[in-house]
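Question (not urgent): is this output format expected?
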Amino acid sequence: MFSFRDEAAHSGSSPDKLRKLLLNDAPFLEYHSSRRLTDILRGNEGTSLVLVSIIAIIILTGVIILRITTSSLWASADKQYTQDRAYVMATSMGDSIDALIRDGSINLASYTSSTTFNPSGSYNDPIEATIAPEGENGYRVTVRAKAGNSEYVYSAYYTNTTGSYTRQIQ
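Got this back:
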């Protein structure tokens, strides 16, 4: 079958010859181009399917990226929460023990060895308070609080000065 493309290839395909072919063969070209367009669409029936598949893959990738990002942010927030909870439990217990020592309710001299208190926390997280003699007239109060995978250690050093205990900042 003879086509416009074949004639353009044989004619040397200069711009003037191509323009002449276009002007002289306009009815043939119009019929041939619509037929050619139909052939292209028929030959590429899967093009729209491929395009829809690519768009679906892009959307799915975006959803997966968002899911991974949000789960990572939640894990980070959960870790920060347990660290904060351990800190609050340890400092709260340490401050309470400090207040009892200053009031005279706890006499550190009566503790000759390590003593451990294990009150139950609000989340059943262990809080361990240890009072141990350290040096000649000193005592170390250590509070360990665990929450989840986090642990915080509160430590204070007290010296005995004439019957009262003074907290030393170290």
